[in-house]
Amino acid sequence: METSEKTAWMSILVNLLLVGIKSSISLVSGSLAVKADALHSFTDVLSSIIILIGIKISKRSSRAFPYGLYKVENLVALGTSVLIIFAGYEIVQEVFSGRDRPLPSHIPLALAGIAATIVIAWLFSRYELRQGLRTGSPSLVADSRHIFTDVLSSVVILAALAGSATGLNLDRYAAVVVVLFIVRSAVTIFLDSVRVLLDASLDFASLSKIRELVLADPRVLAINELWARNAGRYKFVELDLTLGVGDLERGHHVANELENRIKLEISQVDRVLIHYQPQRKKQLTYAVPVAGDQQTISAHFGETPFFRLFRVNRSGGGVVEELVLANPHLREEKAKGIKVANWLVENNIDALITGQDQSGKGPGFVLGNAGVEILLTRETACEKALAAVLSEQAKQQDVREQEENHAA
């Protein structure tokens, strides 16, 4: 059995124990408040049984329910809230029946018994709440809140019994206070369950975490839409992204990485669906590592002193902007190549023109994952290398246009 099932079984046993203690005290003392609280604990037993059934059913899936039966747990939690309200109704009905009731008897024994139930219920409700939050089970969280109402109501009953020992008949008033605790718990569970069943969005903190994880990837240019919801203890995430990659194959690779990252960093994520589209840039940025004269292509990557960046119109027309950037990691002692590669990615380059093959090296992996094309050249002069690259890509563009016209 998994943790949630074991906890549900423990909840049934604990609630049966509480029912036994409170029923015995009610029979011995004749207290209306204790009798009502015993009924309250009996509804806890019923709700715990339903929760166990819900946990088992929620694991199953079928062709009719391709997204699973996770929301069964939320339906169970909703049913639990109805049971709590029913318990409150029974107590109110007893309180306002109009019959005169004598003071409870055997007060010392009743006080000891109620004190024992307070300790048992409080310890188990804290344990069940921790397990519910750890496993993400809404039904366990709902049941822990339900049991915690036993603690609060039993404290009130303990005070009423102490008052009875001095001759004050506070039994009915204590029962009314118990009802208020019950109603508050029921409303909280009911509203939480309805939110999930109506596919309300995840909480703000979870959405912010997802957004932060996605935007941390330099290949993600924009989050167009972000949707996320709960289903039982699990989360479903859907994203519409614009990626700074040149083709769909690289976009698929980025989407898989983001999906794994979200599932790793955020607990109980069952499914991540990512829609993506490569950005069709009007301009491309080429980076060239150059020596100190800013003309000769450097034979090194991480140790090159400068990079010249050329922004070129994709449709032709030559260079529209040129920048010379000093290598900020030139003096680094370790991993300077990888740091330089990340820095270039942050500067949104589309291609690196270099005479040094980076395949199989750290910088090559960084640039490749970011969708940066590495163009090898035998030229040593920066301008000649750029001109050769642009000439070759112009020829490729002409071929593509001819193929498209022929197909049309």
Provide structural commentary.
With 408 residues, the chain is of the alpha/beta class. The protein has 3 domains: 3-197, Up-down Bundle (Alpha-lytic protease prodomain-like); 204-278, Alpha-Beta Plaits; 283-407, Nucleotidyltransferase, domain 5. 58% of the residues lie in helices and 16% in strands. It contains 11 helices and 8 strands. A 5-stranded mixed sheet has the order 6-5-4-7-8, with helices on both faces. Strands 1-2-3 form a 3-stranded mixed sheet, covered by helices on one side. α8 links the parallel β2 (234-243) and β3 (269-278). α2 packs antiparallel against α5 and α2 (32-58) runs parallel beside α6 (171-197). The longest helix has 29 residues, at 107-135. It is elongated and about 105 Å long. The protein starts with a helix and ends with a helix. The mean pLDDT is 81.
